[in-house]
Amino acid sequence: MSKTTNENSRRSFITNLTKGVIGASMIPAVVTAKDRKRNLEDLIRSGQNYSANDQLQIALIGAGGMGTADTNTAITVPGIKLIAVCDLYDGRLADAKKKWGNDIATTRDYREILERKDIDAVIIATPDHWHKDISVAAMNSGKSVYCEKPMVHDITEGPAVIAARNKNKVIMQVGSQGLSSLGNEKARQLLKDGAIGKLNYAEGFWARMSPTGAWQYPIPEDASAQTVGWDTFVANTKKRPFDATRFFRWRNYRDYGTGVSGDLFVHLFSSLHFVTGSIGPDKIMATGGLRYWKDGREVPDVMLGMFDYPETQVHPAFNLSLRVNFVDGTGGTNYLRMVGSEGSMTVEWDKVTVYRNSKNIDANDPLAKSNMPAAGGKEYVYDRKSMSMISPDKTEYAAAEGYKGAHFDHFYNWATAIRNNGSVVEDPLFGYHAAAPALLCNDSYFNNKIMQWDPVNLKVINNKS
Ligand SMILES: NC(=O)c1ccc[n+]([C@@H]2O[C@H](COP(=O)([O-])OP(=O)(O)OC[C@H]3O[C@@H](n4cnc5c(N)ncnc54)[C@H](O)[C@@H]3O)[C@@H](O)[C@H]2O)c1
């Protein structure tokens, strides 16, 4: 990224600050109302009436926790109607009829859903190891797809999903809903406008401390080889005898899940890539361990990842540090922060908080001084004593009351793209750019090696070493 771009960006942020109209010009969907006293700006969407004159008929494949949440949100988007549900556990199919009506068709076989001509699109919320196969089959059947994150279970599976999207006239969106939020959109604009100067570092974490937070889900009393379609569950992976724990707590096992990085880092990558315009890191290192949840799981409950992002046309080189801790006594929080030469911002789905140095250049900053043209040949003398701390200004940008939230926005964007034959941000290429470094954390952790990834040509460079 050139110095000029950064300087222009900073000027643009400052000009907007003076006018008090941040946001109004860059992304028309976000407007702000300023409360100067509290240093708070309300984020509001404008120009969306959410009406629809044509109906999209959808089906859900994988009706567990997230599939249910996805569907409950999707059907609040005007014009979306759920007509069928597929799941491998009979209890979930019975629940689907209770929740969404007796006229909903139910099946254990997703291929029956894909054969139906009256279904326009599917939500795929199965465990990770089925994402690629069902997404590709759905697109090849002419269905648009909303597939949960991570887009794929293994790094080798990404190209097949991208190819299926390119081959078929359908929309596919991956389910890291945060990037469609007002908070993420605002952060993207603030970074572009130079609110934190030149980006050099980002960090994020997920902290949890509960059995369900650590994937110890309840196992239904009636779980058995009769009520569960176990053979289908393992059809594309290692065959094993029926195991209810593996089926209902699939995240703990590598055949089906993608560990904490595939489950949670991936959300942070998606938001970070959306805000910065990045396509991903080229160096990936992960470490961690199994500290507490020694319940037979095959994946760590604490993981740290470090990532190098090389300079591109749209952002400078920067470093990223991510962490997941399932034994975090501070409880359930998550966090994404970006740091630049002039400040930092924490990015949430409904809020952005910018901390900015009150002066753009500290008169005592020897580096800034040395970058200035020499004043009358006088040499600058570094004087440690005169350096003073500059207290940062804090500005909050928060979603106004009534905001429908990231999840709604994500489904609304998906439905709009399907109706208009448009496009979505989190398409298969974006989804792969976010999934790849998350999946490579597992390769780094389990093989004790630094992974090199080429995010342009979508290739692991040191796969064979
Ligand atoms: N976007 C988010 O915030 C978010 C949050 C949670 C989970 N997720 C993602 O959603 C997906 C599902 O997670 P979950 O927590 O809902 O899991 P879950 O175990 O609650 O639900 C998965 C469901 O899929 C069914 N299933 C398994 N294999 C199937 C197959 N081949 N065909 C049809 N149904 C099948 C299971 O019976 C189960 O009901 C995962 O990929 C996860 O990463 C995303």
Jot down its keywords:
465 residues; disordered N terminus; twelve-stranded mixed sheet; single chain; 13 helices; six-stranded parallel sheet; binds nicotinamide-adenine-dinucleotide; globular; alpha/beta
Structure description:
The chain has 465 residues and is of the alpha/beta class. The protein is built from 13 helices and 18 strands. It has helices at residues 3-19, 65-74, 90-100, 110-115, 131-140, 158-167, 182-192, 230-233, 244-248, 259-276, 366-371, 406-420, 428-447; strands spanning 30-35, 40-45, 56-61, 80-86, 105-107, 121-124, 144-147, 172-174, 199-207, 283-289, 302-309, 318-325, 333-340, 343-347, 351-357, 392-399, 451-454, 459-460. The strands form two sheets. Strands 1-2-16-15-14-13-9-12-11-10-17-18 form a twelve-stranded mixed sheet. A six-stranded parallel sheet has the order 5-4-3-6-7-8, with helices on both faces. Helix 5 runs parallel beside helix 6 (158-167) and helix 10 (259-276) packs across helix 13 (428-447). The longest helix has 20 residues, at 428-447. Residues 1-8, 14-28 and 375-390 have low confidence and may be disordered. The structure holds nicotinamide-adenine-dinucleotide. Nicotinamide-adenine-dinucleotide (NAD) is lined by residues 61-67, 86-89, 92, 110, 125-128, 130, 148-149, 175, 177, 232-233, 263. Nicotinamide-adenine-dinucleotide binds next to helix 2 and helix 8.
